[in-house]
């Protein structure tokens, strides 16, 4: 039989219960192997209950000191109840100086106290009892998160000025640098917002006209890493030049914002519009235009394209790649069966083969092919090759060489490139 004897309004602060006639402190902490919250209990006395009822600060200090014991129990271990009970008198009944001395010797959860209003400066000087004079029953998790973020920056030697901090708050990355940045002007002190916007304007001017294209090799919504790196480098250089007083964290978050927004625009653009924006839209004019093509992957899946369809050949092909490409599916082919020619893209090796039929199969004789290989410079190179083939077949690929028919020569060229 379990009855609640004392509880506070904040649900996570430990409760006092009576279980089978015995007083116990009950707290939730950590999670089990199924990610369900774990609950721990240990015995207390009536004297301890009296302090817990009347003294919020001591109650919170006891919680802070007990949490590391719960963490040590892990997902399925038992709470060290002897260690927990040993904390009761020194925290709840001892003089403030003795409590301070205890907290200099034991592990404790600093963030929990900060979330409940503890004075950070006093905590860091080891005056935990004095720090808890400002404690509140209500919890402010953001205050603790900001403290942890500041500690992480301090550990790596990053010191933010007011403008640096304002820029990080504007992008939503003050607490977590890995958070996808967004524009949050309301999070910035109005007095600093004009300065923040001047920095943002510098970044916008630097990358005006630049774009981050799609990279279907990595998925239907993936974007080109090279384009990202190029934009990032451009923005960082411009911001550093115009605002040399900014620390690295602030410069990084501005470039991250610009690149993220450009990548989002690309992901939300239909594939054919992305091709056009990249300057690779196929021109189907002229006698060499392709009217029907076959796309295949390394798993034997095939897709047909005809000129009268709703999408361009390039858009249809890259859509096919985006849907099918995977770590074990990195070879894609475009074939014009009528003309007896095609190209095979090797994403795993940044290379391509163009294949031309010299003699078709006749009777029992096998067909004869000419196979030539070339290296490819990233997604932009692949786009150019695909669109050139769509416009004019294998003959249109001459300018995208050099082409090598000797496999050994090609492998040597590939190793030299990879070594660089």
Can you give a write-up of this model?
Helices cover 44% and strands 16% of the residues. It is elongated, with a radius of gyration of 33 Å. The chain contains 17 helices and ten strands. The chain has helices spanning 46-54, 56-73, 81-85, 88-93, 96-103, 110-115, 120-124, 128-131, 141-155, 162-171, 193-206, 225-242, 248-267, 271-277, 313-324, 378-392, 407-419, and strands spanning 2-6, 15-19, 22-31, 37-43, 292-296, 302-306, 331-336, 341-346, 351-359, 368-375. The protein is of the alpha+beta class and 420 residues long. It starts with a strand and ends with a helix. Strand 5 (292-296) and strand 6 form a beta hairpin. The strands form two sheets. The protein has a six-stranded antiparallel β-sheet. A four-stranded antiparallel β-sheet has the order 1-2-3-4. Helix 10 crosses helix 11, helix 12 packs antiparallel against helix 13 and helix 14 (271-277) packs across helix 15 (313-324). The longest helix is centred in the middle third of the chain and has 20 residues, at 248-267. Mean pLDDT is 91; it is low at 281-287.
Low-confidence stretches: 281-287
- The chain-level structural class is alpha+beta
Tell me the β content.
15-25%
Give the CA-based shape: elongated
> Helix and strand string, N-terminal first?
EEEEHHHHHHHHHHHHHHEEHEEEEHH
- Could you tell me the mean pLDDT? 91
Estimate the helix proportion, in percent. Answer: 40-55%
Taking all Cα atoms into account, the compactness measure Rg is 33 Å
Largest sheet geometry: 6 strands, antiparallel
Give the number of DSSP strands: 10
Q: Could you give the order of strands across the largest sheet?
A: 6-5-7-8-9-10
**Count of helical regions:** 17
For the record, give the distance between the C-alpha atoms at the N and C termini, rounded to a whole number.
72 Å
């Amino acid at each position: 039989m379990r009855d609640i004897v004392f509880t506070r309004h904040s649900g996570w602060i430990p409760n006092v219960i009576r279980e089978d006639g015995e007083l116990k402190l009950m707290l939730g902490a950590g999670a089990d192997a199924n990610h369900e919250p774990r609950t721990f209990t240990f015995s207390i006395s009536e004297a301890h209950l009296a302090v817990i009822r009347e003294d919020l600060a001591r109650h919170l200090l006891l919680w802070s000191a007990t949490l590391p014991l719960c963490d040590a129990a892990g997902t399925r271990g038992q709470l060290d109840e002897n260690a927990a009970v040993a904390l009761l008198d020194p925290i709840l009944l001892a003089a403030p100086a003795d409590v301070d001395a205890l907290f200099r010797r034991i592990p404790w959860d600093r963030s929990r106290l900060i979330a409940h209003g503890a004075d950070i400066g006093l905590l860091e000087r080891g005056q935990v009892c004095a720090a808890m004079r400002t404690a509140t029953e209500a919890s402010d998790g953001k205050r603790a998160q900001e403290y942890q973020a500041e500690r992480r920056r301090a550990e790596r030697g990053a010191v933010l000025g007011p403008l640096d901090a304002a820029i990080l708050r504007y992008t939503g990355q003050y607490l977590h640098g890995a958070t996808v940045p967004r524009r949050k002007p309301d999070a910035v002190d109005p007095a600093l917002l004009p300065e923040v916007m001047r920095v943002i304007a510098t970044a916008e001017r630097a990358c005006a006209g630049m774009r981050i294209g799609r990279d279907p090799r990595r998925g239907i919504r993936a974007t080109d890493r090279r384009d990202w790196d190029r934009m990032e480098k451009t923005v960082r250089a411009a911001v550093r030049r115009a605002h040399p007083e900014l620390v690295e964290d602030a410069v990084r978050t501005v470039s991250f914002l610009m690149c993220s927004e450009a990548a989002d625009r690309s992901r939300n653009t239909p594939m054919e519009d992305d091709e056009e924006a990249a300057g690779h839209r196929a021109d189907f004019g002229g006698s060499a235009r392709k009217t029907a093509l076959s796309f295949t992957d390394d798993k034997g899946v095939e897709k047909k394209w005809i000129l009268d369809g709703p999408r361009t050949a390039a858009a249809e092909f890259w859509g096919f790649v985006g849907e099918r490409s995977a770590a074990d599916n990195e070879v894609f082919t475009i074939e014009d069966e009528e003309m007896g020619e095609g190209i095979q893209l090797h994403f795993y090796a940044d290379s391509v083969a163009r294949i031309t039929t010299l003699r078709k199969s006749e009777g029992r004789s096998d067909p004869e092919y000419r196979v030539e290989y070339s290296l490819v410079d990233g997604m932009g190179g692949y786009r150019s090759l695909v669109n050139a083939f769509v416009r004019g077949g294998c003959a249109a690929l001459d300018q995208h060489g050099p082409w090598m028919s000797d496999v050994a020569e090609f492998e040597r060229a590939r190793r030299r490139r990879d070594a660089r």
